[in-house]
Each structure stands twice: as structure tokens, then as C-alpha cells.
């Protein structure tokens, strides 16, 4: 019997999906793995056997057959994505070879109206049980636009230092929003990029020079491991003016952020100076 699925509106912000983002090689693999999980969840809903992707009383499907079930033509790629879902605890593989959606009780809706014939409904968690809003969710549209611009500049710097290409995607913006919420500065982020590009160059860890690793949960560890930063440039004359222009742009024009970042770098800056720089830059 078909099971109706209850899909949380904050699905991709659940801990398992955040872990998936951290494990994946790139943003494209994140999106493909997310789509694979959704297709498997739909298959489990149609099967109606407590989250099993296929009927548990039948023989388990091979990886190639499972790839066909979710419209993937490359069995090897499907196997790689399945492994990611297993590592992120989004999927379980039973001893008999059958796959089952993890935490099925979270998605199975048992009290649906009998005349509802769809496969799933979107569910907004109750306030008491909801995952706290992420920093990115609290951004205004204007702040989000500025964050996208700042993310682009940071990724351009990472590309310059590593020679690798990265897309300016929401998962990366989320990681940076998390860091900014912890009062991490763009200067510190660039310093971690410099340090890890040097520390991991040519070694087995070079593949981890990527946003989801550098800007993820271990960022503070990398920052503490890095050698001391060079002495900050003196804030005087034309150098001070350029410093304020750079700080304004890197802080997305947010005056409060600019003030505490300047204070963190032991530079005395007034609100009036910041507002003047903003007018000069056309903000």
C-alpha cells in the first residue's frame, strides 16, 4: 500500500543533508545526490514497506538495476552516490542487500485524509520542533545579494590560489553565512585559503581544497593551525582610505559588520567614516 510522504520545507538543512554537502566532491554531486535521495524516497513511498526502496520480500536489486530505477544510466556513478547517501545516514543498506530510507518515521505520513491521492505533501515543522533558522535564512533579499557578491570574490580568490574552479551555489553561501555569523572576517577566510593551499599542495589532501572542506566545521581548527598572519597594514593617509573601501566591499556594505571587523583588526573607525565610504562607492 502506498505511503504518503511528508517532506519538511527545511529538508536540505537537516543534519544529514548538511553532512552530504560536506562529503560530496562538488556542488553538482550534491545536487545529483539530493535528487537521487528524493527519487529513492518516492520509490519507497510507492513500495509502502517502512521505507524500503523495493519490496523487501523480493530479491534485492543490483546497483545497475537500482540506477535504472532512478533514471541513471551509469551504474558506477549511481554506486558512488549511494555510498555518499550511506555515509551521510540518509540511506541504510540491510544485511540482505535491500536499501531503506533512514529515519523513515520522519517522512511517512500516517494520518492523511482518505481522499488524498498524491504521493507527498510539504510540511512546515512546528515552532517547538523546528530546526533553528540558519544565518542565511535570516538574510534580507538585499543582504543575500551582497552575500552572493562576497561569495563570488572569495571563490575567485580560492580559484586564484588553487587553480580550481568552483560554482557560486547556495550551499557555499550557507557555509560563508555560518562563518560570518561567528564573526569570522574575509581576511581570516583568505588566510585559511592561503594556509591550506600551501599545506596540502601536492599531497593526498589536495583534493580537499574546496569550499565544503575549508569553510565547513573545521574552519576554526584550520585558522588556529595557520601560522601568524602578517602585521596588518597601518591605517593612515591614503592606505587608511583604501583599507576602508576594501573593508566596505568585503563586508557587503553592512555598517555594523564593518565596525566590528575594524575593531577586531584594532583599527578605530567611526560610523560617519563608513557612511562616507558607502556614499563614495555608490551604496
Automatic annotation (TrEMBL):
<feature type="domain" description="Phage conserved hypothetical protein C-terminal">
    <location>
        <begin position="154"/>
        <end position="223"/>
    </location>
</feature>
<feature type="domain" description="Phage replisome organiser N-terminal">
    <location>
        <begin position="5"/>
        <end position="110"/>
    </location>
</feature>
<dbReference type="Pfam" id="PF09681">
    <property type="entry name" value="Phage_rep_org_N"/>
</dbReference>
<dbReference type="Pfam" id="PF09524">
    <property type="entry name" value="Phg_2220_C"/>
</dbReference>
<protein>
    <submittedName>
        <fullName>Conserved phage C-terminal domain-containing protein</fullName>
    </submittedName>
</protein>
<dbReference type="InterPro" id="IPR010056">
    <property type="entry name" value="Phage_rep_org__N"/>
</dbReference>
<dbReference type="InterPro" id="IPR011741">
    <property type="entry name" value="Phg_2220_C"/>
</dbReference>
Amino acid at each position: 500500500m502506498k505511503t504518503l510522504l511528508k517532506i519538511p520545507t527545511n529538508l536540505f538543512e537537516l543534519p544529514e543533508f548538511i553532512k552530504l554537502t560536506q562529503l560530496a566532491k562538488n556542488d553538482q554531486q550534491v545536487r545529483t545526490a539530493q535528487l537521487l535521495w528524493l527519487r529513492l524516497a518516492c520509490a519507497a513511498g510507492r513500495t509502502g514497506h517502512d521505507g524500503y526502496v523495493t519490496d523487501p520480500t523480493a530479491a534485492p536489486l543490483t546497483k545497475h538495476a537500482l540506477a535504472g530505477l532512478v533514471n541513471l544510466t551509469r551504474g558506477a556513478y549511481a554506486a558512488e552516490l549511494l555510498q555518499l547517501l550511506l555515509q551521510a545516514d540518509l540511506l541504510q543498506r540491510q544485511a540482505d542487500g535491500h536499501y531503506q530510507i533512514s529515519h523513515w518515521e520522519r517522512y511517512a505520513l500516517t494520518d492523511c485524509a482518505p481522499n488524498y491521492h498524491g504521493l507527498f505533501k510539504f510540511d512546515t515543522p512546528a515552532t517547538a520542533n523546528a530546526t533553528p533558522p540558519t544565518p542565511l535564512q535570516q538574510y534580507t533579499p538585499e543582504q543575500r545579494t551582497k552575500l552572493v557578491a562576497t561569495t563570488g570574490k572569495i571563490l575567485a580568490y580560492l580559484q586564484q590560489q588553487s587553480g580550481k574552479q568552483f560554482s557560486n551555489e547556495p550551499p557555499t553561501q550557507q557555509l560563508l553565512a555560518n562563518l560570518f555569523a561567528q564573526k569570522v572576517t574575509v581576511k581570516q577566510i583568505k588566510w585559511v585559503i592561503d594556509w591550506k593551499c600551501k599545506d596540502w599542495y601536492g599531497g593526498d589532501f589536495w583534493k580537499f581544497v574546496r569550499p565544503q572542506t575549508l569553510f565547513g566545521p573545521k574552519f576554526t581548527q584550520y585558522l588556529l593551525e595557520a601560522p601568524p598572519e602578517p602585521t596588518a597594514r597601518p591605517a593612515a593617509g591614503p592606505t587608511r582610505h583604501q583599507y576602508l573601501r576594501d573593508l566596505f566591499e568585503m563586508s557587503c556594505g553592512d555598517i555594523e559588520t564593518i565596525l566590528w571587523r575594524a575593531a577586531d583588526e584594532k583599527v578605530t573607525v567611526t560610523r560617519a567614516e563608513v557612511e562616507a565610504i558607502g556614499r563614495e562607492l555608490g551604496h
